[in-house]
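Table S2 (continued). Query chain:
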Amino acid sequence: MAPRKTRKPPVKKCPECQGTGHVSSAVLVGRKRRLVGQQSAACLTCWGSGEIPADD
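Corresponding output:
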């Protein structure tokens, strides 16, 4: 009997990070919450992989 072949589940690009796995977030400082720049962070929707499961 031949071994079973497992099929890889279909995936799509993450809509939040467009498949990169990283998103930028604003850096705010001070009491008046002044914007000083942006930093890169891992996407929490896809956990940094850039892919989400496709709905069948």
